[in-house]
Write a structure and sequence with these properties.
Blueprint (H helix, E strand, L loop, with lengths): L1 H13 L7 H5 L3 H39 L4 H25 L2 H7 L3 H16 L1 H11 L10 H16 L4 H15 L4 H18 L1
Helix pairs in contact: 1-3, 1-6, 1-8, 3-4, 6-8, 7-8, 7-10, 8-9, 8-10, 9-10
Length: 205
């Protein structure tokens, strides 16, 4: 459902800036959640623009190098292709940065608000059990050493599976989509693997 997808994204973006205790979270208004999400997205947009600028500069350097240092046409072609790939990556990052107004507008829907607040409360109320489940499923990794965004995506997915009656397949797919948007290039594969182990271990019991 589109509303729940938006709600998951809002929860992910705000979870690191809101209180973790259920009592303090209960008094949070949706406006506080939206503000926390906007702040996170603003920081994300800033980082995205910096990364895009760096990638374009690298692409420009690679094009210049192809003109001055290529020993043959094949080498120059490879350098140009790499520069094009870097530029495309920069464009993709900019695309995420400019979607902030649409997300804020969609967040005004009541079902988005309700599911966002419910999800945040359930995540924080059951964090200990969720973290234990994740730690058991992780191989050669420690939960607290993961990037914050990956850790929060995993927590949201496991919370939905364990405590909110969301089907495993749906929770995993939604987590992977969030990871593709906010994690690094390998993040969505890692998250998919961890969540599938969580499901396998639950079924084995």
């Amino acid at each position: 459902m589109q509303a729940r997808r938006i709600a998951r994204e809002l929860a992910l973006l705000s979870i690191s800036q809101l209180p973790t205790t259920p009592e303090k979270l209960d008094v949070q208004t949706f406006q506080n959640v939206a503000l926390a999400s906007v702040r996170t997205l603003t920081a994300e947009a800033h980082d995205t623009l910096e990364t895009a600028a760096a990638e374009l500069e690298r692409g420009s350097d690679r094009l210049l190098s192809s003109e001055t240092h290529a020993v043959d046409a094949k080498s120059a072609r490879v350098m140009v292709q790499e520069a094009i790939a870097l530029t495309q990556a920069a464009i993709n990052r900019l695309g995420i940065a400019v979607e902030l107004p649409e997300l804020i507008q969609l967040a005004n829907q009541q079902d988005v608000r309700d599911y966002t607040l419910d999800l945040l409360k359930v995540v924080n109320s059951n964090r200990e059990a969720v973290d234990l489940k994740l730690s058991t499923a992780m191989v050669d990794w420690q939960l607290h050493r993961l990037p914050r965004i990956d850790r929060d995506i995993l927590r949201i997915a496991v919370t939905e599976m364990m405590f909110m009656e969301i089907p495993d397949r749906v929770a995993i797919n939604e987590a992977v989509e969030l990871a593709k948007r906010y994690s690094d290039d390998e993040g969505h594969r890692f998250i998919n693997g961890v969540l599938r182990r969580v499901v396998e271990q639950a079924r084995a019991r």
